Amino acid sequence: MSETRFTDQHEWVRLDGDTATVGITKYAAESLGDVVFVELPAKGRKVGAGAEAAVVESVKAASEVYSPVGGEVSEANTALEKAPATVNEDPEGKGWFFKLKGVAGSDFARLMTADSYAEFVKGL
């Protein structure tokens, strides 16, 4: 069973076993505007929780994507390189950025639930 958690930097992470899928939230995608470019991490790269892992550029700005949890990149969503607008169209689905393996459950547990993230966004 998978569960999704969120960061205050507007990344989401879905954990399934010890594999995590990471992307940016709908709120982040809407704030950025039209995404025109993504830079994804290389397979095999180790990232720590809170470390910069990817870059997303829109017509408005460029922004870092931080890894909500630590692990090793097992896959990058290379489809985004040809179709970066997928991030706007389905940010919490097909617009995912990368997957990590070897994720510690303790990293995941400290993140916001969907309800707490929704409350956080209301305050912005």
What's the short version?
This protein has helices at residues 26-32, 79-82, 86-89, 105-109, 114-122, and strands at residues 3-6, 11-16, 19-24, 35-39, 46-47, 52-58, 62-66, 71-76, 98-101. It is an alpha+beta fold and 124 residues long.
Q: How many distinct helices?
A: 5
**Unreliable stretches:** none
Give the C-alpha Rg.
Answer: 13 Å
Distance between the termini: 31 Å
Strand residue content = 35-45%
The H/E string reads EEEHEEEEEHHEHH
Q: Overview of this structure, please?
A:
This protein is 23% helix and 36% strand. It is α+β, with helices and mostly antiparallel strands and 124 residues long. The strands form two sheets. Strands 1-2-3-9-8-5 form a six-stranded antiparallel β-sheet. The chain has a three-stranded antiparallel β-sheet with strand order 4-6-7. The model has no long low-confidence stretch (mean pLDDT 95).
